Structures are given as structure tokens and as C-alpha cells.
Amino acid sequence: IVINLTQVGTGNAVISEAKKSITITIAKCASDLAGTYSLSVTRLDTGAVYNFPNEVITQLALGVYETSTTGPYDDLTDDGAPRNGFIFKDVCQSIVIDEQNLGDFYSNLVYGNPDETNEVTLSTDTGLVEKITMNYTITFAAGPRNYRAVYTKL
Questions:
Q1: Are strands 145-153 and 129-138 parallel, antiparallel or unpaired?
Q2: Rounded-to-10 torsion of CA 123, 126, 127, 130
Q3: Which among 26, 37, 32 has a CA at the least distance from the CA of 126?
Q4: Alpha carbons 39 and 152: distance in angstroms, whole number
């Protein structure tokens, strides 16, 4: 559903240009991605692989999740960041990673790669999550680094 705001009902109100159009998604499918995974992250330009055998994905709200790591980083909170992971959304097994600051702290940006497929693989027998694949970028002064993260449900 797309709501386009065109006028206000009171004299002192204004419509922000950035918020003139609001999109609401109504999903008729469950999102159940929270749990523990074996994670393999590949930095695509170098082929370096980072393994996290007990990656936890936590549900923050309906269809909104937080990972435990971002790229090779599982220690951002040691330097004062409020989290190590990033936030993503799932609507009917379609993953979206909105732009956000690394660890919700650093100026480096983390965002999903729209040209790459982010997907949830479900078991054909049980319908439960087997694997999640996410592609994202972390920006750095020297240039962006692209990662592919494959989460396998434990």
C-alpha cells in the first residue's frame, strides 16, 4: 500500500518532502529467522573468508532482525559501538538491508547490494529456514568492500 500525502488538516502542519509518500507492506507469510547459525562471510574482492560458528540472529520486531557480526567484525562493542551486527528486514523471505552506520557507531556505512540476491532458503519438507544469503557493502575511506554472508541454520 502506498499513501501519498497531499494536504494537511491543520494550519500549522506541513508535509515533509522526504515523507510525502509512505509505503506499507502487508505480508501473509511468517518471518521466523531468529536463531543460531553457522556463518561464512566472504570478502568478494579478495576472497578472504571469515567463519563464525555460532552466529545469533535476534528478532527485534516483526520481520526485523539483528545479526551478531558485520563482515569480519565481531568485536565492535569493544570500542564502544552499541552492537556488532547490522539490522535487516525480511518480508516473505525477501531480505532488505537498509543503509546504517557500522555498529550503529562508526561513520562507515553498511547497506544491502540491490544488484545481488538476498534470499532465505526453506526446507521443502518442513518449511523451516535452512539458509540465509545476504550481500552487503561496508564503506571505507579507501573504497567500499563487498561481502557475501551465508548463514546455515544449526
A1: antiparallel
A2: -40
A3: 32
A4: 6
* Phi, psi angles (nearest 5°) of residue 19: -120, 25
pTM confidence score = 0.80
Instruction: Give tens-digit pLDDT for 12-66.
Output: 777 777 667 777 665 557 778 999 999 999 999 999 999 999 999 999 999 999 9
- Please name the residues in contact with 101: beta carbons below 8 A apart, sequence gap of 6 or more: 107, 108, 109, 110
Measured CA to CA in angstroms, residue 65 lies from 3, 47, 62, 79 at distances of 25, 27, 8, 23
List, for residues 123-140, the tens digit of each pLDDT value: 889 888 999 999 999 999
The Cα 149–Cα 136 span in angstroms is 8
Cell for 78?
569493544
Instruction: Report strand pairing: 109-112 vs 87-91.
Output: unpaired
Query: Hey, what amino acid is at 8?
Result: V
The C-alpha atoms of residue 62 and residue 80 are separated, in whole angstroms, by 28
Residue 105's nearest CA partner among 73, 137, 128 is 73
